[in-house]
Every structure is written in C-alpha cells, then in structure tokens.
Amino acid sequence: xxxxxxxxxxxxxxxxxxxxxxxxxxxxxxxxxxxxxxxxxxxxxxxxxxxxxxxxxxxxxxxxxxxxxxxxxxxxxxxxxxxxxxxxxxxxxxxxxxxxxxxxxxxxxxxxxxxxxxxxxxxxxxxxxxxxxxxxxxxxxxxxxxxxxxxxxxxxxxxxxxxxxxxxxxxxxxxxxxxxxxxxxxxxxxxxxxxxxxxxxxxxxxxxxxxxxxxxxxxxxxxxxxxxxxxxxxxxxxxxxxxxxxxxxxxxxxxx
Amino acid sequence: xxxxxxxxxxxxxxxxxxxxxxxxxxxxxxxxxxxxxxxxxxxxxxxxxxxxxxxxxxxxxxxxxxxxxxxxxxxxxxxxxxxxxxxxxxxxxxxxxxxxxxxxxxxxxxxxxxxxxxxxxxxxxxxxxxxxxxxxxxxxxxxxxxxxxxxxxxxxxxxxxxxxxxxxxxxxxxxxxxxxxxxxxxxxxxxxxxxxxxxxxxxxxxxxxxxxxxxxxxxxxxxxxxxxxxxxxxxxxxxxxxxxxxxxxxxxxxxx
Lengths: 256, 256
Ligand SMILES: Nc1ncnc2c1ncn2[C@@H]1O[C@H](COP(=O)(O)OP(=O)(O)OP(=O)(O)O)[C@@H](O)[C@H]1O
Ligand SMILES: Nc1ncnc2c1ncn2[C@@H]1O[C@H](COP(=O)(O)OP(=O)(O)OP(=O)(O)O)[C@@H](O)[C@H]1O
Ligand SMILES: [Mg+2]
Ligand SMILES: [Mg+2]
Fold this sequence. Notes:
The structure is a homodimer.
Chain A: E1 3-7, H1 16-28, E2 34-38, H2 44-48, H3 60-65, H4 70-73, E3 75-76, E4 82-85, H5 90-97, H6 107-112, E5 121-125, H7 132-140, E6 143-149, H8 152-171, E7 177-184, H9 191-204, H10 217-221, H11 229-232, H12 237-251
Parallel strand pairs in A: 1-5, 1-6, 2-4, 2-5, 6-7
Antiparallel strand pairs in A: 3-4
The complex binds adenosine-5'-triphosphate (ATP) (2 copies) and magnesium ion (2 copies).
C-alpha cells in the first residue's frame, strides 16, 4: 500500500518542486516505484522532468474534473520506476471550479485511490498557497513534508502552515502526520542560514530532518535539461544530499 | 495623481516583497510620498517593515470587506514619507469571500481611489498566484512590475503571466502597461544566471530594466530587523541596486 506524501509550504520559492523531483528520483534508485503528482498550475514538476506541458492530451485537470482515470494520464520520466501525473495550464481553472462542488476537498484523494497499490510512494508537489489545490493534497496525504529556506520570511509562514495542518486533521484527515521539515538552499558561508537552522531546530526538534540540502547550482541547472539531478550531475553536492534524504526518510517514522 | 504599480509574478520566491519594500524605500528618499500595499496573506511586506501583524486592529482585509476607509488602516514605517497598508492572516479569508461577490475584481481599485491624491506612488505586493487578490491588484494598477529570478523555472511562468495580462487589458483595465521586468538575485559567478539574463533580454527587449539586482545577503537579513535595506546596510550592493532602480524607474516611461 503506497504512502502518499504532500510537499507543501505556502511560502514561494523554498524548494518544493526541486524536492519533489529529486527526492522522488532518489527513492526510485532504491528500487521503489514512485509517482510524482504535479498539483501546481505552474507545472514546474512537469517541465522539470522534460514533459511537454502543451502537448498533454490527458493531464491532472482532466483526472480531477473530467473523470479521466489517473492511470491514463500518467507518463514516464527519464528514470525507471519513476512516473509522473503531469499538469498544464488547465489546472488554473480547477482552483475556481472545485470551489463550487460539494466534497471539493476530496477530489485528489478519490483520484489517487486506485493508484495506491501500484506505487510505494506518491509525492504531491503543491503550489505556493493554502488554497483548494493544496487542501486537496493535504486531504489525500498520509504525511506532509515541509521544505523551508534558511531565510527570515520562511520562518514567518510556518505558524500559518501549522494552523492549517491542525484544521485539516480536525475536519478532513485525522491521520495526517508530519513527515519532516527539510532545510533547503543552505549556504554555510552565511550567518543568517546558521541562525535560521538553529531557530528551526529549537522550535521543531526531531521533526527536522538531519539532512540539509545545500545551495548548489546543479540543482538549479538540472530542470532546464528536463532531468533530476541524479541524471544531470550525480557527483554534485545537491545529488548527494537528496540521496541522503531518501535514505533518512526510509529509516525514520513520521512524527506528530 | 499618484501612480499605482502592481509587483506581481505567480512564481514563488522571485523577490516581489523584497522589491516592493526596497524600491518603495528608495523612492521615498527622493522626497516622494510612497504607499506600499500588502496584498499577500503571508504578510511578508508587513512584517518586513517591522509592523506587528497580530496586533493590527485595522488591516487590508477590513478595508476590502468591512468598508473601513483605507486611510484608517495605514501605518507609518521606519522611513519618513513611506507608509504601509498592512495585512494579517484575515486576508486569507478574502480569497474565498471575494469570489462570491459581483464586481469582485474591483474591490482594491475602489479602496485605493481616495488615496491616489495623497501619494506619488502606490506599490502593491502580490501573492505568488494569479488568483483573485493578484487580479484585484492588476485591475487597480496603472502598470505592472515583474521581478524574475535568473533561473529556469522563472522563464517558464512568464508566458502564463503575459496571457493573464492581456486578458486583464481586454476585460478590466485597458490602460494597464508594463512598468518593466526586473532581473533579481543575480549571481554573476553562475553561467545559468548569464544565460537567463540574455534569454530574457532577447525575448523582452526594452521592457527589461537596465538595473539588475545582485544576490546580496544584506537583502535577506534586513527584514529580520524590520527595516528596508537603506536603513539596515546603506553601503551594500543590494541597497545601491535598489537606489539605481528607483532612479531608472523615474527616468523611463512604461512600455506596452
Ligand atoms: N538547493 C538549491 N540550490 C540552488 N538552487 C535551488 C535549490 N533548490 C531549489 N533551487 C532553485 O531555486 C528556485 C526555487 O526552487 P523551486 O522552484 O523548487 O521552489 P518552489 O517552492 O517549488 O517554488 P514555488 O513556490 O514557485 O512552487 C528554482 O529556480 C530552483 O531551481
Ligand atoms: N537580491 C537578493 N539577494 C539575496 N536574497 C534575496 C534577494 N531578494 C530576495 N531575497 C531573499 O529571497 C527570499 C525570497 O524573496 P521574497 O520573499 O522577496 O520573494 P517573493 O517573490 O516575495 O516570495 P513569495 O512568492 O513567497 O511572495 C527572501 O528570503 C528574501 O529575503
Ligand atoms: Mg514549485
Ligand atoms: Mg512575497
């Protein structure tokens, strides 16, 4: 029975897509079957894996709102065992259309149900907001992985995210756990990064992954070649960090 | 008659808030009266200027949906001539409440009308989405300033933004111009940054500001002290770049 992990944080640009793509790819190299779901209308996960968004006949929008079975929309990626449920601009329309429907929070959960047997992990990349698309991901998920940049504004947004999390648990998904908080874009030359790291660990304790993702240009270059970093520059610090994160994720249980 | 500029890009973390705060502060030092409007429920502009979000009795939400006059919600910032219309978590509610109202795109425009005589520039910081809050900002604005990071995913999102822009012009705001496209977080040591800079200039020509904002840690540190960079570290490269941007903005007319 596959585990569903939502990768979410309403703060923009903190490394949600980069983490979804590269954690997914790293888990796939451990002989696990991985599905990545692009729940962001920007479609960065889709294009970052080299999938042409404008040529998709079946995308996540049609799975959610046109009853297209999810497995018909699934595409393969450059890596064996790593599939994607891609999205295109149509998904922007879903943000308004879903709001008028009853059970609007459960559309993704229902769409993913038939897939849970075929994958070991299903990772959902979320947009930078706490709107209906992210809500769908949190309702469908077993756990939440929160990437956070080592910068001031990143800390600010955490309390809103935790408030949303407890509301989701009370109303829609009591089983939702925190998979972990991941420090990203860490530049050890900057005092600011060290201060934020210490702050986050002081507040969140063992919810914070030991693994820290360093700022590494290969991570920013890889998506322009449509590849996860493992296929673009496997010796880079970025690739090594995400492999380490995959190992850590497999060895630890999620926390409250 | 004050000029209203929306600072928007649905891509997250590209420097919207950092540009709103520091361009605003730089314009204020040129003896202009500046208002910054925090249209992002994250409230990063509000906290980045040292305003306590949780202690606000009147915030932008109440101006938009409780008919509180805008000037009653305005607070001063650490800089003379530089005021802010702050927001707190309530603004998240506006994203759903506005959707059910007729004229939902015009709420911010109506709220800012009485203020246009009292300020030379009104800058609106937008959330990382093309939803109803950003729509309100684009309808209220005379022009749009687009910050863009020198990274691959940043280029991807531009076509969606320009599509939205032409729809807004056709339906809601025919006068909306492009103030300019601003390259941010530029690290001259990276080939990727140079490639993206050349790409953006090739596609967008004179719509791109000459001024480029370098990656500079003082810009990331300043908000934790609740100050614009001019008051935190005026000799930094970040402060110099935003002063230069203010000069360039004042000397050029917006383009189509
Ligand atoms: N560790 C890293 N080192 C260097 N660059 C990185 C790293 N992680 C991400 N990036 C780059 O930073 C930018 C932001 O990352 P990304 O797009 O993954 O964030 P996001 O949270 O998904 O953004 P959004 O909120 O828009 O969805 C991208 O251009 C990405 O390539
Ligand atoms: N030129 C720069 N050099 C270094 N750091 C920067 C620069 N500009 C912005 N930052 C930092 O990068 C992060 C993202 O910037 P900012 O929050 O302004 O982006 P944004 O587009 O407003 O994000 P969001 O999409 O979440 O609203 C912040 O932590 C900010 O302090
Ligand atoms: Mg993303
Ligand atoms: Mg912002």
